[in-house]
Design a protein that fits this description.
The protein has helices spanning 3-20, 25-39, 75-83, 135-151, 153-159; strands at 45-52, 55-63, 69-71, 87-89, 107-115, 118-127. It has 160 residues and is an alpha+beta fold. The protein has one domain (3-159): Beta-Lactamase, CATH 3.30.450.40. It has a six-stranded antiparallel β-sheet, with helices on both faces. α1 (3-20) runs antiparallel to α2 and α1 (3-20) packs parallel to α4 (135-151). The longest helix is centred in the first third of the chain and has 18 residues, at 3-20. The radius of gyration is 14 Å and the shape is globular. The chain starts with a helix and ends with a helix.
């Protein structure tokens, strides 16, 4: 087992324990974004966008000021929403339609939050270096999103 995998397994356990102590969606997303930002190296932004009407609206995050509102199906976040799949972009400068929120970001991974077949938001993680994310990041960040959805079904049933 690699140190990266062990670190992610510990992080998943921390998120699991954190979600046991609070039922509020915003409070949990705020703490999860803080945990991810603190425990994953070489990041410059991590946070959530939640679907509101025809937009993704900024939710809890860690990092510099971000785009408050993203039209659905625009940029990397929108592509993840539309495809309902993890999108890993090694070089955001090469991604057609990339929305620049932080000029320092060079790579990005976005994990859609899917409830009952509907994408209701995304976990967005940016890094200031190219090709920062790999399959291990995708696997464990997806596990964390799945854990959030599983542990907070009432919050997401209201959102979906």
């Amino acid at each position: 087992m690699t140190p990266k995998i062990k670190s992610y397994q510990n992080l998943v356990a921390l998120v699991d324990a954190l979600l046991d102590s609070e039922g509020d969606l915003i409070a949990n997303l705020a703490n999860v974004s803080a945990l991810l930002f603190e425990h994953i190296d070489k990041l410059n932004w991590v946070g959530f966008y939640l679907k509101k009407g025809d937009d993704l609206v900024l939710g809890p995050f860690q990092g510099k000021v971000a785009c408050s509102r993203i039209p659905l199906y625009k940029g990397v976040c929108g592509k993840a929403m539309q495809d309902q799949q993890v999108i890993n972009v090694p070089n955001v400068l090469d991604f057609p339609g990339h929305i620049v929120c932080d000029h320092a970001s060079r790579s990005e991974i976005v994990i859609p939050m899917v409830v009952n077949g509907h994408a209701i938001g995304v976990l967005d993680v940016d890094a200031p270096i190219f090709a920062r994310f790999d399959d291990v990041d995708a696997q464990y960040l997806s596990e964390i999103v799945d854990l959030i959805i599983k542990k907070l079904p009432d919050a997401f049933n209201q959102e979906a």
